[in-house]
Specification:
alpha/beta; four-stranded parallel beta sheet; binds iron/sulfur cluster
C-alpha cells in the first residue's frame, strides 16, 4: 500500500507536509557505501568500529551482509579482514592502535567531521583553549583570554550554536571564531526545512534514532518553531496514536542517518488510519552533494 492510494472514505483526511531535504546526507551515504564496497571487494567479515551511522535498521542490514560491529578494536581478533571506522570520527589513538595491530583499516569519518576536528587540533596546538557547550561557556575560566577560540560541532542545532557563541562573545570579546560556519550543510538544510513546515502543522514526526543527535535536534527545532507536538520515532510500531487524535495536518522529516524506507513505513502506518494528501515542501537542493569513497574502495566502486 502506498500513502497516496489508500483512500477510504471512513478514514479522516490528513494533510502531510513532507520536508525536503530529509534523511540520508552525503556523509552517511559514503559511510554505508564504504562498508558495502568492502564486503563486496574483500568478502565477509568486515569489522566496523561503532555503529557506522546512528540507525539500528541500517546496522542490522549491514550485519546481515557480514559486517561485525564492535565497540573497541580490542574486541577484534588478529585478522586480515578490513576494519572500518564509523562516520562520526575517531580519536587519534584508534588509527594508531589499528596500525600497531596491522589492521587493514578504512576511515569512513565524514569529511566534514574531519574538517572540524582538524580545526580544533590547530587551535589546540596554538595553545588555545576550547569551549564546547553553553554551560561551559558560562563557567569557563580561561588561562589566557587572548588565546581563546571556538569551533562548532557539525550536527548541533544552529540556534544552540548561536546561544553558545553569544555567551562567549559577551564574556570574551577577543575570542577567535572559525573561518566559516562549521555546521554542515545537511544539518542546516534539514533544520531549515523543519522550521518552514513546523508552524503549519498540528504535529510533526521525525524519523530517526534516539542516539542520533541531528535527529533529536530536528524534534527540538520543530517545537521551537511552533509545532505543539513533535516526536522522534524509529519505527511505525513505536507511534503512540493517541497523540495524533484529531490532527488535520502532519509534518514528516527524517534525520541524516534514517533511510527513506523507514519514512515510507511511517507514512504507510498513517495511511492505514487516515486518508492522506501528501505534499512535499522543498528547500535546498542537495542532489549535487557527494563525497568520494576512501581511495582503496573507490577503485573497486568504479570497476
Ligand atoms: S550530518 Fe553532516 S557532518 Fe554528519 S555525516 Fe552528514 S554531512 Fe557529515
Amino acid at each position: 500500500m502506498t500513502a497516496e492510494n489508500s483512500g477510504n472514505s471512513a478514514k479522516p483526511p490528513l494533510k502531510v507536509l513532507l520536508c525536503s531535504p530529509r534523511g540520508f546526507c552525503a556523509g552517511v551515504v559514503r559511510a554505508i557505501d564504504s562498508v558495502e564496497q568492502a564486503l563486496k571487494r574483500y568478502g565477509a567479515p568486515v569489522y566496523v568500529r561503532h555503529e557506522i551511522v546512528h540507525n539500528r535498521y541500517v546496522v542490522e542490514s549491514l550485519k546481515a551482509k557480514g559486517a561485525i560491529f564492535v565497540e573497541e578494536l580490542s574486541e577484534i581478533p588478529d585478522t586480515k579482514a578490513p576494519v572500518i571506522f564509523s562516520a562520526h570520527g575517531v580519536p587519534k589513538s584508534i588509527p594508531e592502535e589499528s596500525k600497531r595491530r596491522n589492521f587493514f583499516h578504512f576511515d569512513a569519518t565524514c569529511p566534514l567531521v574531519t574538517k572540524v576536528h582538524r580545526e580544533a587540533e590547530i587551535h589546540h596546538k596554538r595553545g588555545r583553549e576550547i569551549v564546547q557547550t553553553e554551560a561551559e561557556a558560562e563557567a569557563f575560566q580561561p588561562r589566557d583570554v587572548s588565546k581563546l577560540a571556538y569551533v562548532t560541532q557539525t550536527t548541533l542545532s544552529l540556534d544552540d550554536t548561536a546561544g553558545i557563541v553569544a555567551v562567549l562573545k559577551r564574556r570574551f570579546p577577543d575570542i577567535v571564531a572559525p573561518h566559516k560556519e562549521d555546521i554542515c550543510y545537511a544539518t542546516t538544510n534539514r533544520q531549515e526545512a523543519v522550521k518552514r513546515v513546523a508552524p503549519q502543522v498540528d504535529a510533526l514526526v521525525v524519523v530517526g534514532a534516539p542516539n542520533s543527535s541531528n535527529s533529536r535536534r530536528l524534534q527540538e527545532v520543530a517545537e521551537r518553531a511552533g509545532c505543539s507536538y513533535s516526536v522522534l520515532v524509529q519505527r511505525a510500531a513505536e507511534i503512540d496514536w493517541s497523540k495524533f487524535d484529531g490532527i488535520k495536518t502532519l509534518g514528516v522529516t527524517a534525520g541524516a542517518s534514517a533511510p527513506e524506507v523507514l519514512v515510507e513505513e511511517i507514512l504507510d502506518a498513517f495511511a492505514a488510519r487516515y486518508t492522506l494528501n501528501v505534499e512535499t515542501v522543498s528547500g535546498a537542493d542537495e542532489s549535487g552533494m557527494f563525497f568520494p569513497l576512501p581511495r582503496q574502495l573507490r577503485d573497486n566502486a568504479a570497476a
